[in-house]
Amino acid sequence: MPHLHFLASLGRKIDHVPALRDLLWRLEAAMLQQLWRAIAAGDPETVSDRGERLGRLIGPRTRKHRHVLRNLATVFPDWPILRIEAMAARVWGAVGRTMLEYACLDRIGDPAANRVRVVDLGGLEHVRHTGRPGIFVAPHLANWNMLPVAAAQAELPLTVVYRRQSNPAIEALMADWRMALGCGFLKVAEAARRIPRELRQGRSVGLLMDQRYDRGVAIPFFGVPAPTTLVPAQLALQLGLPLVPARIERRAGARFVVTVHRPVEAEAGLNPQEAAVGMTARVHQLFERWISAAPDQWYCGRRRWPRPSGRKEKHTRFLTG
Question: Is residue 207 a contact partner of residue 160, using CB atoms and an 8 Å limit?
Fold first, then answer.
């Protein structure tokens, strides 16, 4: 909706005025809640389809659109501009689906509905066999909230790391819906301190690790070095736990397949830093294959790679517009 885009633009101008910022946050949350109530009524497929249309309408009007375009151009450097732009529209449609599906996570995750199918290629079996928790890592594909649903089906206690919304009123609204996932939650800011404790208490941990981490290590991602966290691999090595990649795919409407792959193991003869880098690089290779197979399902609305310095970017026309 154009008025939501206007609110976002207004918010950037009054961030330094707390009283006005708080008023705008409450207004934004109230509008979003009314929007969800109006659009999110009906079966999950209908809700998801409405979200797709809404995402295509709003997404290209946001500041994040340039990140989507730039990231897609990096992943597919040989694609012409029109193909990149068409794929970006599909990306926003998928994001819209995920956002509206928050309002019916309880129905999507209901085992009786058979909307989420779990395929285990060895990761879940490994965790069950050892009787110890695992560290599950996934990219922002399809509806990434399906990872906790898969863990619930496998009867694995799971805590997921998530990024809070900047608007606390919207965060409170979404937190109510997240409760339907039946897992624990850790904010990114407290993850480093609390993840080891969760693991030692026997709870598996889920992290989305396809986004930029400026304090991380440069790991090749689609052939371009990308600052990436080593924390999941480091924890797996330090605690002797499996690092388990998981892929979420949207098959139709609000129906999903979650494929849990066998653990990524360290190469023999490497020091801990080298082993963590190697494990993270292999996770990236899996992510590359999954994203290449379904680029429209990849949420890439954040800048993934460092800004280029001293060289002209491909697709400059739309990247800077």
Answer: yes
